[in-house]
Design a protein that fits this description.
0% helix, five-stranded mixed sheet, 11 strands, Ig-like_dom_sf, two-stranded parallel sheet, G2F domain, Ig-like_dom, mainly beta, Ig-like_fold, single chain
Amino acid sequence: MIAEVYLQQTVPWFSSTKILKVPKGHYAEMNFTMQSYYPSPCLDGIYLEVRDGNKQSANLLVAPSLDQVAKTQFALYNHSASLWCPAQGAPAPYIVWRKNGTVVQNSTSVRYQLNITEEKNEKYSCEVDRPDGLDKKEINLIVESKIFIIIVN
């Protein structure tokens, strides 16, 4: 399918390949959403490829977002655990992880690994820098203890 791209033209939803042509010397500004029918932190195997007329890839920027961060996450006392912050964006956004307001990790990893050595619940957050400001999500970590039941006869 081929569509000519002009200012303010909307290309409807499609499920496979879509070719957009722009006259030489012009550019196309695209807003798009990629969706998956399966719940996952990333869209595996689903991608957008942008090429110029010489089959060279173009630069693609997608504003980062934190849409599906669980507000409450759980960990087991005296075990290692991971907090999840599924961030979307291209290139992969840098995620700043904070524990009680202090930066503990700054990377592109959507996972923050920690060892639970105390039985107190901590406040964590993950954040990404967007063109329109900071997108920050608070995470309450609930530490659960093992319960031992001793039966005495």
